[in-house]
Design brief:
Helices cover 32% and strands 25% of the residues. By secondary structure, the protein is an alpha+beta fold.
């Protein structure tokens, strides 16, 4: 299965459906990271609540992003002890990261233009969100190499040749 994901489908298909199906691990790569809120019943909650819930269920979450998130994200982050103290949640910052991707249990992958923000994911109203496009696939020929690339980044495999270490606020390696 390879499926085109457009605009609001980033929220309805990826965030509302796919992310919650993670059972072993969820890897998220994004350049921009903001205080994204998602629907939980009749109320909106920070997406961080979803991640904390997954971690509480035993899912290992890797969050990779390119810049420090804003103060509202950090305030929300501090409200979830699962994200602060649990070994199953890990986060790195790489200023050169521009990839927007999700890997779900090594069996499904999203690769596209949407950052993990309300406007990028399509959680905002029709007239306030970005126009985004991406692909969701379970094709091992696509999922495997994307996983390898993200894992190389995670391990700091690109750091020795990066030539931007002087500008990196939190070097991986």
């Amino acid at each position: 299965m390879t499926e085109l994901i457009l605009n609001r489908e980033h929220y309805t298909r990826l965030i509302a459906e796919e992310v919650g199906q993670a059972r072993a691990f969820l890897w998220i790569a994004t350049a921009d990271l903001k205080d994204l809120h998602v629907s939980r019943g009749k109320r909106m909650v920070p997406f961080l609540a979803v991640l904390a819930e997954l971690v509480g269920q035993g899912v290992h979450v890797r969050l990779m992003h390119a810049k420090e998130p804003g103060p509202r994200f950090r305030e929300d982050f501090d409200r979830y002890p699962e994200l602060l103290h649990e070994e199953r949640f890990e986060r790195i910052l790489c200023p050169r990261l521009h990839t927007k991707a999700l890997i779900i249990d090594g069996r499904r992958a999203y690769l596209g233009s949407a950052n993990l923000t309300g406007a990028g994911i399509g959680a905002k109203s029709e007239h306030r969100r970005n126009w985004e496009a991406g692909i969701l696939t379970d094709d091992p020929a696509l999922v495997g190499p994307l996983m390898e690339e993200l894992d190389t980044l995670w391990r700091g495999g690109h750091c020795p040749a990066c030539q931007r270490r002087a500008f990196c606020p939190d070097p991986i390696a």
